[in-house]
Amino acid sequence: MPKDGGIGASSKRREDVRFLTGAGNYTDDINLRGQAYVHFLRSDIAHGTITNIDTAAASAMPGVVRIFTGADFQAVGGLPCGWQITDRFGEAMKEPRHPVLADGKVRHVGEPICAVVADTLEQARDAAEAIVVDIDELPAVVDMAKALTADSPKVHDDLSDNMCYDWGFVEENKEAVEEAFRNAAHVTTCELTNNRLVANPMEPRVALGDYDRSSDNSTLYTTSQNPHVIRLLMGAFVLGIPEHKLRVVAPDVGGGFGTKIFHYAEEALCTFAAKALNRPVKWTSTRSEAFVSDAHGRDHVTTIELALDADNNFTAVRTSTLANMGAYLSTFAPSVPTWLHGTLMAGNYKTPLVYVNVRAVFTNTVPVDAYRGAGRPEATFQLERVIDKAARELGVDPIALRRQNFVSEFPYQTPVAVAYDSGDFHRLMDKLEAQADFEGFAARRAKSEAEGKLRGLGINCFIEACGIAPSNLVGQLGARAGLYESATVRVNATGGLVVMTGSHSHGQGHETAFPQVIAEMIGIDESMIEIVHGDTANTPMGMGTYGSRSIAVGGSAMVRATEKIINKAKKIAAHLMEASESDIELKDGAFSVAGTDKSVAWGDVTLAAYVPHNYPLEDIEPGLEETAFYDPSNFTYPAGAYACEVEVDKETGAVTIAKFTTADDFGNVINPMIVDGQVHGGLVQGIGQALMENAAYDENGQLLSASYMDYAMPRASDVPMFTVDHSNGTPCTHNPLGVKGCGEAGAIGSPPTVVNAVVDALQSGGHKVDHVDMPVSPARVWAAMQG
Amino acid sequence: MYNFEFVKPATLADAVAALSGEDAQALGGGQTLIPTLKQRLNQPGTLVSLLSIPEMVGVCKTDDGALSVGGATTHATVSAEAAVDFPGLAGLASHIGDPAVRNRGTIGGSLANNDPAACYPAAALGTGATIVTNAREIAADDYFQGMFATALEEGEVITEVRFPVPEVSNYQKFVQPASRFALVGVFVAKYADGVRVAVTGASEEGVFRWSEAEAALSAIFSVDALAGLSVPADGMIGDLHGTPAYRAHLVAVMTRRAVAAAA
Ligand SMILES: Cc1cc2nc3c(=O)[nH]c(=O)nc-3n(C[C@H](O)[C@H](O)[C@H](O)COP(=O)(O)OP(=O)(O)OC[C@H]3O[C@@H](n4cnc5c(N)ncnc54)[C@H](O)[C@@H]3O)c2cc1C
């Protein structure tokens, strides 16, 4: 029987009323009196020395307020990097300065050189065309392998070479892993590219800086997944504004997928300019700008090897990856190919030995950072491709090979630092097999064959690590931030609640799901609970939303704060009923005394808290408002088993997704409908990566797919109806809700599933193809079929 | 976008007069022109909208049995109104872009622009249509002069496109994954006196007729007649979405499919 409220109910997303009726309040909807507009003059050259910037004519043009250049930012800090990696040899990564506006050199197409502030946007654009920038073009380097050669152009002259770091994990196991490979009965090797992606949230980035001279307070309105992080990074490291003088507001956010985590130059510029000019300054990204200024995702080139013994047990995994950082280190870029990737290389398997080597490389391209899944899709892709290939080489069933090597006892300590607290991979696979109708596959394949199509079946298992924590551990790993979350629960006199959370929503539906938890705890209607987020002025310091962390970390903080509320409310109830506090029970929105028929309603207690006439004033304070900060003791480990069937057009190479089935373990689920939606969205994004998305550069550093004319995005018509399931959750053992997080699973699990299916289809047609690089475009599949 | 003047004349004569002014440019549905203006890649002094000229809008049969499409007729109108008389053309129009594009974009704009991946050029060349302008009539075989190049003079307006209606016809489009224009599109039209085959999307020279296929199909109109025929990869477009060899391959595949669908 589906519930109609509380945990487990598919409550309708209350925020959708405003989103779907055009009543949302996005950053670009905010306009301040007297605001000026900024247009960024960006480099159209990938690498060069700026020899001269002449703004004289432009400055004299109508409406121009001020033109900023790199020279204006000498006194402020560069854009900071929030994670420091220590390399294999104990050295800190190379961390070049990341100026707000280009400083002497341009290093990627899209890098901002000048910021023109004018009364209108068109005036700013007119003036930008009158600026003369002389750049001595230098050879650009785009290819990572080339960038590591001795005679490569250097992206940063002050660094010895283009390598940011050379990371080994687990470095102590390197020898043992090599030994395992020497002793292996079979070794399978894959060389893979994880294609570079542009995040493409529907809402482009926007920044609006404001300054109040009377109070000396600055405000930044911005499209951010984590306004507190922006306030800290921008205030402390870039502009030198203390946090109490700086407010960051991220109102409704129209998608982020990671790319709105980071602190960007445009945010600093607008905040800085607003103060310098004593006038609000607004920037709204065009879609064209987004392609060359939003941090990109993925872009790994990997060789992975899997060692097996004579009984097909996995004995070791060894990888060597080049990870593109782009021209500068974006906020969390160094962590993605390392701690968010290496720690996942055990996957669902009890492989005893793993060695991951990652060399991060600077190139003359847009910076690369976290994108839905961040490191975990890259890990999963490698591992599940190499396992699939091994099964083929050994002539064993790919499911049987996986099952044989599954971790089956929990907790499980992996050889890559993390310890899985719970899971049941066999049960997920059982569920997948039951739902995906593998028995019917042969008949479906025959039917496709009759229509001139090759049909393939791909399987994939994965585990992710979400809600990265605890803070003291990530600090040791190089994070320059904590990874807790916060919530303040404010109960009003009449019984309603407002929850101010450090989590933020960029589409996930927190305003619906979070109240379900509290409604369940207190036994009141969800409509009595309101969520406030996205504004540093009225929410406690929090780390925001990414890494599928909000319900696991933010939700847990909210539970803790609500527990404090309930404890205090019980004291008040005990006083009102003249009973002992330990006898008070809370159920269905009423406090009762155990074993009696005495009870007081939730609203009577909340009223007493604020109108404390009959109240234990000597023991407790009036009011009912509590804050909690929650720092998890471990990551959560959602897992999944996915199956995909594709059809390949034998003549054109076009791939269609015919069927997609998932079985996910998200632990306990708060709102199944929202979780379905998260999985659907993730699957489409992963299918997009697998089949069509590609941020491709030419060798001069020009982005070839810099608009939707060439950057292919998946559409509804590109995917079938999905069969998704998450009914087999094993609760997380270390957070109060037993939840694991679901935001990234679809994007992590789907790319290898699709590619495995394509390879299966091609093999079934007699093609000796064991890999096709993503995106698996018609042209690539056709070329692969030509041999 | 730079500033420009905007006029919306009600007669062809007024439109032609307006277009004779300095830096004046015709505006059809704006589906190509407006994005270039937004990106400041074009700076016309005056835009002359052609959408309020009644004689340039609509689809009708002429006395000699041709299908006449007004130069300012939208793709959506063609797909609806040509469906009975010329389903091959209606089918092509119904797969251009998305509904918003089809409700704005016009046949005149498409042919004037002559994007090497556009669909209409294949229909015009594949039927031997006549491009009628305010000044003259131009045979399709003379009209297309390479990527984005046509026989149109400065200020000349496409007022009508006259299609000889084939016995059977079909357009097969293999979409470029991002833009969904034609990576390769092939229009096949069978007439009493022979078959025409026009290919868009593939060649560096823009839309072209595949004469070997035409000869083979004129002899026997069947897929089998195409066996062994191929176009050389030389001169085909190579880009992110396909090599010249792939495009050459698709020309043959799409031609076969068009014949199969038409026959
Ligand atoms: C998202 C999207 C998808 C698309 N997909 C496709 C597709 O799949 N296939 C396809 O073929 N096209 C596609 N198009 C292009 C579309 O068909 C355009 O409508 C067409 O290319 C231009 O027609 P228009 O009426 O919009 O012309 P405009 O943009 O108004 O004008 C284009 C050019 O033609 C000139 N012009 C306009 N009308 C005339 C006339 N009557 N006489 C002389 N010159 C004229 C203008 O001066 C301008 O130079 C797509 C466009 C978009 C935006």
Instruction: Just name the CATH architecture of the largest domain in chain B.
Output: 2-Layer Sandwich
Task: State which percent range the strand residues of chain A make up.
Answer: 15-25%
Query: Approximately how much helix is present in the residues of chain A?
Result: 25-40%
* CATH third-level topology of the largest domain in chain A: Aldehyde Oxidoreductase, domain 4
Please give the order of strands in the largest beta sheet of chain A: 3-5-1-12-9-10-11
How many domain units of chain B?
2
CATH topological fold name of the largest domain in chain B: Uridine Diphospho-n-acetylenolpyruvylglucosamine Reductase, domain 3
Give the helix/strand class of chain A. Answer: alpha+beta
Biggest sheet architecture of chain A: 7 strands, mixed
The small molecules bound here are: flavin-adenine dinucleotide
- Topology of chain B as a string of helices (H) and strands (E): EHEHEEEHHHHHEEHEEEEEHH
Tally of helical runs of chain B = 10
What's the level 1 CATH class of the largest domain in chain B? Alpha Beta
Structural class per helix/strand content of chain B?
alpha+beta
Main β-sheet of chain B: number of strands, strand sense, barrel status? 5 strands, antiparallel
**Separate helix tally of chain A:** 19
Question: Total strand count of chain B, please?
Answer: 12
